[in-house]
Amino acid sequence: MSAWGPNAGPARVLTITEIAAQEPLIRSALRGLGVRAVDLDDVCQDVVLGAWMSSQAGRYRPDRTREPLDALKRWLFGVCRFHVTHYHERAFRRREVPVDDPWASTGEERVDPGHVGERIDAGTALMAIAAMPLWAREVLVLAALGHGGTEIASILRIPLGTAGSRLRLARARLARKLRRRLLR
Question: What are the pLDDT digits (tens) for 3-17?
């Protein structure tokens, strides 16, 4: 038994033509795995290219006990499953808005992105943070990097309560500084 399975044979390199000839099978598998019709061409292209690259890397090892075409179809279905898993996890799929005008469906007025009260300039925020004391900068940066209170306390080697207090005070101080800068 090899690491590739009980009956895996030697690696075989496929041509792009051999893979593209299986496009009807790939499209059928993708539809069955839940790929929307509007995305079918893109995901099919990803599968064909991914299968070819995988074959070039030596990852296509057909089962010697199966017919060559059957082994190829089974392997391509596995490649389809891999790509469909990533297709469903992509950020653009999770945040896609399936309407022409997203503001029309909310019933709210459009927000003017240039309105000073609605937007914080990144340069202004960075200058405000740079002007803060070291203890405040440390906790703000660690919190911005996604660390929780326990992690901040551990990294800075301070008690958990102190880390929480410093973070609360630093956020309040930053909010005051930004408010003052915006009112200027």
Answer: 545 556 688 888 889
